[in-house]
Structure formats: C-alpha cells, structure tokens
Specification:
about 230 residues, alpha/beta, Arc Repressor Mutant, subunit A, 2 domains, five-stranded parallel sheet, four-stranded antiparallel sheet, 12 strands, about 20% strand
Length: about 230
C-alpha cells in the first residue's frame, strides 16, 4: 500500500525534525522544505498528498505560497494545513479565504496535528469527483468545473472559500443552512471555525457579487440561503 506523502514547510529546524519523526513513525513519507521558494520549485516533482505549511517564512511567506498553489490548476487540490504562531481571528479568516483545509496554532500537539492530517486526507479520498456543470441564475453564471463566476458576462474574482460557499448555496436554492452546515460542506466535519468567520466570508462574497449579492439571504437566527427570485 502506497504511503501518503506529506510536505512539511517550516524555517525552524527543530519543528521540521519533530514533525518528520512523528509523521514517519505513523507511516507517512515526509519531505521537508525551509522556505516558500523551495516549495514552489519542488512541488511538482514532490507531488505531495498534503502540505503542512508555516505562514511566517523568510522571503515568500506561507500566504503567498498558498495563493500560488491554489491559483495553479495542477496544485490547487493539494490539501494545506496551516501551522503557525499567528492565531488571531483575522489570520484564520485569511487562511480560510485562501483555501487552507485546516488551521493549527503553535504551540501544538503532534498527536492532534496527526489526527487533523488523517481527517483531511480522509476527506480528500472520500471527496466526490467534481463535475463541469454550470449554474445559471438570471445574470449570474457559476461554472463549477472551471471554477469561474460571471455576472452579466463579466468575470468575478473570488477566493477559494468564497467560491465553495457560493456554489454550495446556489446548488440548493431556497434551502436554509446554518453556519456550521456551510463550513462542514465546504471544508469537512469539525473544521475549526466560528460564526463570525462565516459572516465575514458571506459579507465579502456579497460585496464582490454586487447586484447579485442579494441572492444570498440571511435567515435571522438560523443561517443563510440562496434565493432564485430576490
């Protein structure tokens, strides 16, 4: 049985050694990198099943690495767990928006990190293959295969998580979903997230959608739903 390959990115040698020891003992194949530049150079040859990524890297930081990976069709489906000392709510929001699959703050428990890695890889394996369907609602067109959004024929730039939320809600117009249901569907069960973070995501999404932002309705005391006829 092929071992899953984990790419660990951190500029602290002791953390690299700690993670490599624990993950190797759990049966994973481990590759280490100390800079964002190195990740971007080796990513295709390494072809990892998951990346554990520090944000505070010298030179190209972890956020920039994430942006470049998620904007590249060859690498955008590689799960990323952000492992960082930056634990403010705003930092977590940014990580979610860029497409992180999990966010763990330092200091951390190796056992908890390994459990999170297993959960993310399990979600990746069980994730149904995406289709190339198109969702059309008046002036709004969502192409799930190409991950594009058009409003009156003009493209709208969305973050990874904004697109996930929009396509999830738009597929089920009229259905009401709680904030926890939304994050579970776009990220997986037990993803560390607060109601406030979902509200921030929705607010940013509405703003980018402009005239189509009214399609996303707040259901007071419950959550959100997508309306075909606002």
């Amino acid at each position: 049985m092929t071992k899953e390959k984990i790419l660990i990115v951190d500029d602290e040698e002791d953390i690299l050694e700690l993670l490599k020891f624990n993950l190797t003992r759990e049966g994973y194949e481990v590759v280490c990198a100390g800079t964002g530049e190195k990740v971007l150079k080796i990513i295709e040859s390494v072809n990892p099943d998951l990346i554990v990524l520090d944000l505070m890297l010298p030179g190209t930081d972890g956020l920039e690495v994430t942006k470049k990976l998620k904007n590249n069709p060859k690498n955008q489906d590689i799960p990323i767990i952000m492992l960082t000392a930056k634990g403010e709510e705003s930092d977590i929001v940014i990580g979610l928006e860029l497409g992180a699959d999990d966010y763990i703050t330092k200091p951390f428990s190796p056992k908890i990190l390994i459990a999170r890695i297993r959960a993310v890889i399990r979600r990746k394996i069980n994730k149904p293959a995406g289709d190339a369907s198109e969702i059309r609602i008046h002036d709004l067109v969502i192409h799930t295969g190409m991950r594009t959004v058009l409003i009156k024929g003009k493209p709208v730039e969305l973050t990874f998580t904004e697109f996930q939320i929009l396509s999830f809600l738009a597929r089920r117009p009229g259905w009401v979903f709680t904030r926890s249901q939304i994050i579970d569907k776009v990220r997986g069960d037990n993803y560390p997230c607060t109601d406030r973070i979902i509200d921030v995501q929705i607010a940013g999404l509405r703003k980018k959608l402009g005239c189509c932002g009214i399609y996303i309705e707040t259901v007071r005391g419950v959550g959100y739903r997508f309306r075909e006829n606002p």
